[in-house]
Amino acid sequence: MAANTSRPPDYRPPPGPPPPPSLQQQPSSNIKYASPPPREVKPNQFPKLNNVVTVEHCHYYLSLMEQFLLYKEKFDPFHLKILLARAERRYIQWRHIIQSSFSRSGYKPFVPPLDVAYLWHAHMLSPFRYFEDAIRLNQTSIFKMNLPLRQLYQNATSYLDPTVMNTWALYYGNDEPYMLTPENVVVGTTTVDCSFCSSSMQCSWIEYADWRHDPFMGIHCHTCRSSTTVGTTSVVRLNEDIESRSFLIAGTLLEKNGNIKQPGRFQIQRTMAHVMKIAEEKLLPEFRLLVPQRSMDQIIGFIQDMADPNKNTFYGKGSSMQKTQDWHRTATPLLVNALRGCYQNNPSPFSLDLIQAVGRQQDFNIKAVIKIDWQSPFGIVRGIRQYNEFLKMIMMYPSQVMVPTLEIDLAWHTHMLHPAAYRIFTFKYTGQYVNHDDNIVPERLKQFADGTDKVWRETNGHNLINKNVRELNEKIHNGNDKKSKRGSTFFGKIRKTFNPGLSSVDYNPGTLMDATDKFVVESTRILSRRTKSS
Q: Which residues lie in Pro residues bias regions (predicted)?
C-alpha cells in the first residue's frame, strides 16, 4: 500500500463557546499573550511532559514574562532600582508568611503580586540554589509549591479577584500595597539591622535601594556609630549560618548530582571549622574570623593562605593539624567559590542574589516575548519535544554542559517552575538533579553550545537548529533522494536500544505535526513530482 504523502491539514483552533467573561476583559491589543492559550482540536494533539510541561503552561509563562517586561516599562531607572530592592524584601516576607501559614487550618493560599512572583520565578530557575535554600531556611513546604502560572495570567487578563487583595491586607497590613507603582514604590520606610550592634535602623525605600545596589554605601547606626554595608551584612549572614544553622553554608549542601550530602561528606564545613579554629588561636584574642570589621575578601584571603603551603605559617613540624592539610587544600577552592557566589555582597538570606538573577533573565525575556514568532502552538510544541530529547542527551552525557535553544529553554523553564516535580523527574530519567546555570561567560557558552550541537547531531542525526531543513533543501536542489545515514552508526543504535525514552505516562509527544515536518512533507511532494517528471 502506497504511503500517504498528502499534506496534513493546518492547525486551526477548535470551535467552541467564547472564553469566560473574566478572559474577555483583555488589555490593549498590542499585548501578544493576553489571549487564551491554544486549545487542542482533538485529544492528545499537543505534547505533554511530566504533566506540567504543556502548551498551556508555556503560554502562561510567556504571558508572565510579557507582563513583567511591560510592568518594568512603567518605571524609569531610578524607580526601577527601588522596585527590585523592595520586591526582594517583599519576597522574603512572603516566604515567611507562606511557610508559617501551612500549619494553620484556616489558611488559604493567595497569588502573590507580579513583582514577588517574578523574583520567585527567578529563584526557581536556579534549581540547586532553590532546593538548598528550602533546606537551609527550613522552608521545605514552599518547595512543594508550583508557580501559579494560570492564576497570574488570569490576574493580568481580567479584574483582580478582591479576595486576593483582602488576603494580602490580612498578612501585610494596609500600608503595604499589593501592586507597586512608580507613585507608591517610594512611599514608606523599611529597616536594616546594624552589622555591629544589631540595632534596627530605619531608612526610606530610596535610601534602602541605594544601599542594596551599591556595595560601598553604608547606613549609619546612631547607636554604635558604625556603618553597615551589604558587605558587612553578608559577613554577619555567613556567621549566622555557621553558628545558628550548624555550618549550613550556602552552596555546599548538595553533591554534584544534586543529592543531599550524607554524613561524612561535609569536608567543606569541616574545613571552615578548621579555619575558624586557626583564626581564634592565631589572630588577636579580641577578634574572631567572621566579624563585620573584616571584608569577605579578607576572610577568603585568610582561608586561601591557610591552604597554601608556601604562605601557611600555621603548620609547624609535628603539628597534629598537618595530617588534614591535603584534604583541606582540596576543599578550600569549593569553600571559596561558595563564599563568593552565595554570600559576597548579598544581604538576603538566599544563596543567590535575586536582583542579579532577574537581570540575567532580561535577555531571554526579550527574545522569547518580542523577537521570536512562536507561531503558536507550533513553536511551543517543537520546544517541548526537543526538550524531551535534550533530557536524553543529559542522561547520555552527564558530565557535559548542555546549552539549549530558546525553544527548549522555554519548556525547560516551565518545568523548573514546578520544582518538586522537576526534581523527581530529572533524577528519575537522567540520574541527576539537572541544574540550570544562566551565569556562564560568553566564551565558555559558545564552546558548550558547539558541544551540544555535536552530540545532538550524533544522537539524533541532524543539527539541533533547523532540523531537516538544510538536508531537504540539498535534496530538492540536487535531486538526491538517498536516505541520510547519520545516526545509524553502531553506537547510535546502542544508545537507542538502552535509552528508548520516557514512558507514555511521563511523556506524550502528541499528534500535531511540527511546522518543520510540514515543510518536510511539502518538500517531499515537490521532490516526488520532480522524480516522476524525469
A: 11-22
Query: So what's the pLDDT on residue 515?
Result: 67
384 shares a domain with 528: yes
Give CA torsion, residues 363, 185, 154, 421, to 10 deg. Answer: 60
Q: What angle do CA 15, 19, 24 make, to 5 degrees?
A: 135
Average pLDDT over residues 251-260: 93
Judge whether 203 lies within some domain: no
Judgement on whether residues 263 and 402 belong to the same structural domain of the protein: no
What the block records as the C-alpha cell of 257 is 548530582
Specify the pLDDT at position 24: 33
Q: What is the pLDDT of residue 497?
A: 35
Residue 314 belongs to what domain range? 251-342
For residue 355, which amino acid is it?
I
324, 342, 360: which is the final residue of a domain?
342
The amino acid that residue 354 corresponds to is L
| C-alpha cell read off for 65 | 514574562
DSSP 405-422: -HHHHHHHHHHHTSHHHH
In a domain, 507, yes or no: yes
pLDDT tens across 446-465, in order? Answer: 888 888 888 888 877 777 75
Alpha carbon distances (Å) from 447 to 244, 275, 395, 409, 419 = 42, 37, 20, 18, 29
pLDDT band at 311 (very low <50, low <70, confident <90, very high): low
Tell me, yes or no, whether 286 and 380 share the same domain.
no
Q: What is the CA radius of gyration of the chain?
A: 27
Residue 529 and residue 456 share a domain: yes
Please enumerate in sequence order all residues whose Cβ is within 8 A of that of 23, keeping only pairs 6 or more positions apart, or say none: 36, 154, 157, 158
For residue 323, is pLDDT > 90? Answer: no
pTM over 0.85: no
**Tens-place pLDDT, residues 47-60:** 999 999 999 999 99
Asked if 382 and 298 sit in the same domain, the reply is no
User: What whole-number distance in Å separates Cα of residue 46 and Cα of residue 55?
Assistant: 7
Number of domains present in the structure of the chain: 2
CA distance 495 to 458: 10
Give domain status of residue 32, yes or no: no
Residues 298 and 423 in one domain: no
CA distance 504 to 472: 30
- Residue 492 phi, psi (nearest 5): -65, -40
CA atoms of 235 and 208, how far apart (whole Å)? 18
CA dist., res. 349 & res. 136, Å (int): 9
Q: Is residue 465 included in any domain, yes or no? A: yes
Closest by CA position to 154, among listed 25, 262, 43, 248: 25
Percent of the chain with pLDDT over 70: 77
Residue 213 three-state SS = helix
